[in-house]
Design goal:
single chain; mainly alpha; 3 helices; 91% helix; 0% strand
Length: 101
């Protein structure tokens, strides 16, 4: 298969997945409201935003592809920063353990 077809199919998959999850979020917010739970409005607002974004993703696969690339890039950078931070903390812990011995 060509990479362009895979990118378009992935874009539609993510768009419809986001739509279904957002509709589920609207239902959850309505359930929270019915049970008198505070803060349900934030969930409703984010779910409606998710529905709007899903329509945008479905209508513009190029935007979705760019979003996926950006999200993966940000995730890799965040994971790299986490690993560096973890390495520094483990090194300081190792030094502390050597001082105890």
């Amino acid at each position: 298969m060509s990479p362009a077809v895979i990118a378009i199919v992935l874009s539609y998959f993510i768009g419809f997945w986001l739509m279904f999850q957002s509709i589920w979020g609207i239902g959850s917010a309505a359930e929270l409201q019915r049970n008198g739970i505070r803060g349900w409005g934030w969930l409703m607002a984010l779910a409606i935003l998710g529905v709007l974004m899903s329509f945008l993703f479905i209508m513009s696969p190029a935007l979705t592809t760019g979003f996926i690339v950006s999200l993966v890039s940000i995730s890799f950078v965040a994971y790299g920063i986490f690993r560096i931070y973890l390495g520094v903390k483990l090194r300081s812990l190792h030094k502390e353990m050597e001082e105890i011995d």
